[in-house]
Amino acid sequence: MKFILLLFVTLATASVAAAERPIAIVIHGGAGALERGRYSAEEEAAFRDKLTEALDAGYAVLDEGGAALDAVEAAIVILEDAPMFNAGKGAVFTREGKNELDASVMDGATKNAGAVAGVTTVKNPIKLARAVMEDSRHVMFAREGAEAFAEEQGIERVDPDYFYTEKRWDALQKAIAKDKSQQKGELSIDRKFGTVGAVALDAAGNLAAGTSTGGMTMKQWGRVGDSPIIGAGTYADNASCAVSATGHGEFFIRLTLARDICAQVEYGERSVEDATRDMIHNRLTGMNAEGGVIVLGKDGDYAMAFNSAGMFRGVKTAVETRVGIYGTEP
Amino acid sequence: MKFILLLFVTLATASVAAAERPIAIVIHGGAGALERGRYSAEEEAAFRDKLTEALDAGYAVLDEGGAALDAVEAAIVILEDAPMFNAGKGAVFTREGKNELDASVMDGATKNAGAVAGVTTVKNPIKLARAVMEDSRHVMFAREGAEAFAEEQGIERVDPDYFYTEKRWDALQKAIAKDKSQQKGELSIDRKFGTVGAVALDAAGNLAAGTSTGGMTMKQWGRVGDSPIIGAGTYADNASCAVSATGHGEFFIRLTLARDICAQVEYGERSVEDATRDMIHNRLTGMNAEGGVIVLGKDGDYAMAFNSAGMFRGVKTAVETRVGIYGTEP
Fold it and tell me: β-strand B140-142 against A140-142: which pairing, if any?
């Protein structure tokens, strides 16, 4: 059984009440088969606490007049450092038993962007993605070249063992066992596609988006998913919206999912709500693919939508702080 | 001095005359500082002959009722095998003196796609990109993982020395010398961004696009440009258009250039001509970036536009076969 949930809220009330430009941060920690009962009460509370911590960190930046980019980074670093999410510490394993991390970030004010794919020794890939954006001639680096750039920039490195968690290792062993009974080319439907991400709007009216992931359990060597692809997993443009996605990345690349939502807003004059709904519940579902997305419009309207049973998610504005996991809660 | 050229043609006449669905192929071999006088008459003739050969190969596929995807592959393989273009044989060198090749392909009928980044031993990266699309669970592979997949699939491999050409090696040495006198973060304006690409429309009404490149002379290790990024260097959707781009890839990624042109057509209800002009002459030029693009609409309308002095290019339809290099020829 699959739940479908759409959350669309306008910040109009908030901005009127505060008589200033709205600030907001929206985050996700991955979408998937998150039915109620899957986690113990303690586990569930830990998820909610960590999501709240990330929201608070990002919002504090915005509340002090800081930049959307800094808010996005602050929130994502907390999610990367938490072993419960598939990004940074807690990343899943590739088929070869490695942890290969991807991340990207985009600045809606300049449409500048940075991305890294397949890094194995960088503690916080989102920081490296930002360094690529700000301190290199390029937008994207893959694998050893990305590591070399991290070294050059003095970005914190760790031993690959840092990313080991028993839970993810066990998940790989299960996936390997299951794969042996499956046909080539067929993806196990309960394969996990966890990712973390954040989108923010600052008081100056600038949007930013960032995404970070440990990839797909048992992915093939060198596979690049949507998270480091600008326009697929991440997109931000002050003219339309900011997006971070989580799900079956291959479909997100083919749909240019993040860019497409913003293009519907920009060229199709659709609302953030309509564009997001169309993408997740018509196009993504139409491809038999699963996932979710967080979207923040230039006026502060936001959407969190997914066609899986649940999505780790949260939003913080001047008037609300809210986190959710299941499809059956608001 | 910079020439600006736009070529927009409608195939309406052709389709009426032939009383059947239009077929068409459009190709490029890179855009850049291609002023008249740069090449000898012999060199120029060799470029035009090779472009014509690629057009003929692709068009022959379409004319026999073949698929747009096959036409795109046939044309690109010829351009990859020609040492005069920066793709396959003839690829430029990275800062470390290596040849790292990128390619991608997209099927407008299914929006399926395949891409490879940073391969060093694959003779025709476009064939590997297609294998990723058709024979893997994934859309994109980078570096060693892409090589491993090539091995698995029996795709033709070569010794990295195969890609050596004296001309490109000399270009690297010049770039290294020049770089020493430049500030970090500043891109030499005459750095070359050659790429090859093709877009095709078949008799069944299907669009396809493909792009292949040797990257940027003196690029940093592991840099990924726009060519393997679906939505940046390559995009195809039967609902709108097919695009292959060539130029300063970092800006193409930030602009989601290929997807954006098609999004303007799809959501903004702009013509292929208007969308292409807006992208190249407003947005790309507005970012002080250089490049060009070939675009083919679902009804056979096509555009070839660039804001550099020239672009190697060609088009073949039922009613015309035409190749060009400079901005001052039609």
Answer: unpaired
Residue B182: both structure tokens together: 């430049």
Q: Which of B165, B195, B217, B317 is catalytic?
A: B195
Per-residue pLDDT tens over the stretch A13-26: 444 444 478 999 99
Q: Which residue carries 């326009």 as its tokens?
A: A231
Q: What is the pTM of this model?
A: 0.90
* Three-state secondary-structure class, residue A211: strand
Residue A111: its chain B contacts at CB < 8 A?
254-255
Hunting for tokens 């929201």 — which residue is that? A55
Q: For B257, which residue in chain A has the nearest alpha carbon?
A: A231
In sequence order, which residues have a C-beta less than 8 Å from that of residue B270 and are 6 or more positions away? Answer: B264, B278
Residue B133, CB-side half-sphere exposure with 13 Å CA sphere: 27
Helix (H, G, I), strand (E, B) or coil at B329: coil
For residue B315, the surrounding DSSP H or E stretch is strand B310-317
Place of tokens 């989108």: A199
Residues of chain B falling short of pLDDT 50: 1-3, 11-19, 183-190
CA distance A31 to A38: 14
Residues in A touching B103 (Cβ below 8 Å): none
Domains of chain B: 40-326 (3.60.20.30)
Residue of A nearest to B236 (CA): A254
Q: Catalytic pick from A195, A211, A213, A276?
A: A195
As a whole number of Å, the end-to-end CA separation of chain B is 18
Half-sphere exposure of B282 (CA within 13 A, CB side): 8
- What ipTM does the predicted assembly reach? 0.89
Bridge-partner residues for A314, per DSSP?
A: A27, A323
CB contact under 8 A, A229 and B229: yes
DSSP one-letter code for A29: E
